[in-house]
Design goal:
Blueprint lengths: L1 E4 L10 E5 L7 H11 L5 E7 L3 H5 L10 H10 L4 E5 L3 H4 L3 H11 L2 E7 L12 H11 L2 E5 L3 E2 L2 E2 L2 H9 L3 H8 L4 E7 L4 H4 L4 E4 L11 E9 L2 E10 L11 E6 L10 E12 L6 H22 L2
Parallel strand pairs: 1-4, 2-3, 2-5, 3-4, 5-6
Antiparallel strand pairs: 7-8, 9-10, 9-14, 10-13, 11-12, 11-14, 12-13
């Protein structure tokens, strides 16, 4: 997948199938749009998104993201998108009339097909909608496909609903609505190596400041590192048993891991919540609990591999 930042850096001339949105989470509704644009014969698929979410810029500057930019790219690469075009949500774009925005896509990226959700809005103050798109599609010469919101259990799948599930620690249900597991990706960093001293080797990730995290606690996870896949358990939190002033880390015990895993990037894939993080009376008590959690994880993977 090619990543292009800024419309001025988009130099291709090939005809394209396009979808547009902030795509927070890349959930099942978004994946339906991706499937449409990647299946258009003779057209390259282009996903148009924004460097900062319009919602974050306009309404909620402290908003956390379900997926970071790096995580979004990992997911889209697997979904077969040809080009990810990232636009700056700046003053010019913010005040652009909806007709001009669509004309820009038609002219600059040779848009021949556009797929959006029924609630899609665009242009200054969100003045553009599906009805306007239907009118513009004739004059601008592109095929339009407006799809209804994807539902689960009679309810619309939305980023808001998924955020609630993650904030409750219900990573399994969040993954179901996302269409892929909730993940945390990033570089492996050095921790205190206490796990290694206890005979329980760990890797640590430092989450991005704008990443939406589940509640502090222990989760059953899978870890992907440089194409290799490991089972594990992951503690999200700040290790209160060790110290009171630790930064938040994503600390994963990798079951049956071998070799040096530092200085590489990892993706931690969350499957199930086990227990809240708590402060133990001693490192021995912590070690005993970790070993119990490892046993729970092995049972989980044995059950789910069959």
């Amino acid at each position: 997948m090619e990543i292009i930042k800024g419309i001025d850096n988009y130099l291709h001339k090939f005809p394209t199938a396009v979808t547009v949105g902030k795509f927070d989470g890349i959930h099942l509704g978004h994946e339906a749009l991706v499937s449409l644009i990647t299946s258009q014969a003779g057209l390259k698929s282009v996903m148009v998104t924004f460097g900062k979410s319009p919602k974050k810029v306009l309404f909620d500057p402290d908003m956390k993201y379900i997926i970071t930019e790096e995580e979004r790219n990992i997911i889209l690469e697997k979904n077969g998108v040809d080009v990810l075009l990232v636009l700056d949500f700046d003053e010019v774009l913010m005040h652009q009339p909806p007709e001009d925005f669509i004309q820009m896509l038609s002219d600059r990226i040779n848009m021949r097909y556009l797929a959006v959700g029924s609630d899609f809005t665009f242009g200054y103050k969100g003045a553009g909608n599906a009805d306007l798109l239907r009118k513009l599609s004739d004059s601008a010469g592109f095929e339009l496909n407006v799809i209804d919101k994807v539902q689960d259990d009679g309810r619309d799948i939305s980023s808001t609903r998924i955020r609630e599930l993650i904030s409750q620690g219900n990573v399994g249900e969040a993954g179901k609505l996302l269409g892929h597991p909730y993940i945390i990706a990033g570089p492996v960093v050095h921790g205190r190596h206490l796990g290694t001293g206890m005979g329980i080797p760990t890797i640590n990730l430092r989450p991005a400041a704008n990443k939406l995290l589940p509640p502090f606690g222990v989760y059953i996870t899978t870890v992907e590192i440089e194409g290799r896949v490991y089972h594990g358990i992951t503690n999200v939190g700040n290790n209160p048993t060790v110290s009171d002033d630790n930064p938040i880390t994503i600390e994963t015990n990798i079951l049956d891991a071998t070799g040096n895993l530092y200085e590489e990037r990892a993706t931690v894939i969350f499957h199930e919540y086990l227990r809240p993080e708590k402060k133990f009376d001693s490192l021995d008590d912590l070690t005993t609990e970790i070993r119990r959690n490892i046993s729970q994880a092995r049972d989980y993977f044995n059950h789910h591999s069959s």
